[in-house]
Write the structure tokens for this entry.
Amino acid sequence: MPAAIKAAFVLCVLQVSLWRVHGEDEYRFVTKYIDMPLDHFSFTNNITFKLRYLVNDTFFGEDKPIYFYTGNEGDISMFAQNTGFMFDLAEKKGALIVFAEHRFYGKTLPFGNDSYVSPKNLGYLSTQQALGDFVYLINDLQRQYVKDGSPLKKLPVIAFGGSYGGMLASWLRIKYPYSVIGAIASSAPIWQFKGLTPCQNFYKITTDVVRNLGTEKCVQTITKVWAALRNLTRTDKGKANVSSQFQLCAALKTDDDVETLIGWLENVYVNIVMVNYPYPTNFLAPLPGHPVREICEQSDSVSYNDDEGLVIAITKGLQVYTNYTGTTKCNDLLHTASSNLGEKGWNFQSCTDMIMPMCKTDEDMFENAPWNFEEFSNSCFQQFLVRPRNEEVPILEFGGKDLATASNIVFSNGLLDPWSSGGVVTNISSEVLAVLIPNGAHHMDLRASNPLDGIDVKIARQVHEREIDKWLAKFYSKNFALPVELIRHL
């Protein structure tokens, strides 16, 4: 049995400091590990692994809430350093801050270095198991932080999450309402599944953002690049020239390599739109403020009249994303974002319990590509030796658009974010709200406040705070048997 999953680990606590770079705010944590069951849904083994979580108790007061971030598809420290809203709010409310890492990402590797070697091991990577981890950890936090003599038997827990983490936050509230009294789910595309959202919407939004915040010329250049790349890479010499122009770490050798380049470039454009914040950030990559505008300005500055010139225009603009710091030596086609993001793990999940049909049409700037479940299934089998059972797993598991029984959730979406295509953008009920941020990018409202924030993102944060106050007031009213009016002042 690998050492990483042996039972009876001693809880390990390490004091570490994490901080933002490029002059952004510094956030510090204690890093803890908890022995976590490998399989929450079977009694056939007692195997455990070490799940990492980060704790900041700077503002924590007795009987105050726990703000619990449901970890994403990557190293949890990266999300902790890009979710400053939780810190801003915790300081006002006296909350304990916890960031829980998602199994199979970051340092939470159930099988150590063997975690990704076989489908047998990867089979324990799922949304359902991750939610089980969070419930298990929250229960342990209650034992740790409820003080002797406190009138409370448990502390109120609010779930926070952005993107996939936002999906998990909302599903945690839906499936395990005993664990969390409410959820703030930002940029959470819980409807990006079969039959719930038109498959073309994601790439159409991406294109519209480039057109509206960049230029029409920029859109047309990107639209033309796919055919140009295919034309230029028909020969070995052409592949070598394109490899050099894109400054690739590994030169293109085969047609499959060309497909990899095209897929990588598509993802880069999506990423740029996702993180089109008005100020410099380093979330997916070090970027200036308004990166869509910047990349289009660079690309548009090149005049071209043939395929070679077009590629020069594309690569000049691309450097805003790939080499803004001037320190990138070459471009690795296996990574489109920070290495802290677990792209391989997410690719596996997208083949199992997170199947999100997407297609490209004449309405966008990408190559036409219809959604083909059979081809998708074959690709999954080629990569991981697994096939998706069907396209409806997430709907069957989490209910799709039927949220009638849900409560205490705020879904927020920036309309500049392609993932808003699968987001909840209208109120479901008085207890499940939708907040729109017209000029907001990907979970921008969860970032720390910034002088360049627009009024729309400020209002979104006010809604979050107002709803959290309501949930907490109801919780404390029940547990202290005091009127809500008095509880609001605790």
Observations:
- The two ends are 50 Å apart (CA to CA).
- Confidence is low (pLDDT under 50) at residues 1-24.
- The longest helix spans residues 455-480.
